[in-house]
């Protein structure tokens, strides 16, 4: 299982890569999770946004985006975390988080990192240094809690 990890600034994405990203997000978030929301939210192609992709052969198998701290009130923000159904329970989520933290640090050194998690995943994200901030809230019909990984 050879995975090719690519992290690109939004201006460097090919139209095929962007299409694959939007297709995977729709497949999982909208169709599989039945969450009807505006996935294309205007943040994919702004500022210093970067897209972290895991490719196996010609298939996008995992993805997340990194929103820059200038656009996000001082926090690098991890969002749209998704793994293809074919790659679940194979350690892909762990590798995706490791890669995300490495790329966040490389691109925005010494910045806190924020993500919005489903409450039942707090323990998972705490393994990567994230702590809950604020209360549970509902967004697009799904309960979430903010989590931040502060500077050491």
Helices and strands in order:
Elements: E1 4-9, H1 15-32, E2 50-56, E3 59-67, E4 76-83, H2 92-107, E5 113-117, H3 122-126, E6 131-139, E7 142-149
Parallel strand pairs: 4-5
Antiparallel strand pairs: 1-2, 2-3, 3-4, 5-7, 6-7
Describe the structure.
By secondary structure, the protein is an alpha+beta fold. The chain has a single domain (4-149), classed as Gcn5-related N-acetyltransferase (GNAT) (Aminopeptidase), CATH 3.40.630. The protein is 26% helix and 34% strand. A 7-stranded mixed beta sheet has the order 1-2-3-4-5-7-6, sandwiched between helices. The longest helix is centred in the first third of the chain and has 18 residues, at 15-32. It is globular.
Largest sheet: 7 strands, mixed
User: What's the shape?
Assistant: globular
Enumerate the strands of the largest sheet in spatial order, edge to edge or round the barrel.
1-2-3-4-5-7-6
Distance between the termini: 34 Å
Give me the secondary-structure category: alpha+beta
**What is the average of the pLDDT values?**
92
CATH superfamily membership: Gcn5-related N-acetyltransferase (GNAT)
Count the beta strands: 7
């Amino acid at each position: 299982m050879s995975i090719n990890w690519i992290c690109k600034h939004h201006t460097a994405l090919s139209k095929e890569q962007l299409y694959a990203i939007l297709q995977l997000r729709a497949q999982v978030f909208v169709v599989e999770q039945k969450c009807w929301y505006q996935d294309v939210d205007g943040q994919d192609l702004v500022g210093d946004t970067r897209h972290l992709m895991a490719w196996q052969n010609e298939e996008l198998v995992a993805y997340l985006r990194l929103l820059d701290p200038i656009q996000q009130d001082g926090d690098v923000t991890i969002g749209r975390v998704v793994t293809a159904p074919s790659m679940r329970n194979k350690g892909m989520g762990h590798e995706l988080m490791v890669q995300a933290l490495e790329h966040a640090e490389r691109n925005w050194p010494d910045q806190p990192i924020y993500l919005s998690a489903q409450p039942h995943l707090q323990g998972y994200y705490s393994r990567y240094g994230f702590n809950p901030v604020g209360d549970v809230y509902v967004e697009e019909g799904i309960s979430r809690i903010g989590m931040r990984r502060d500077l050491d």
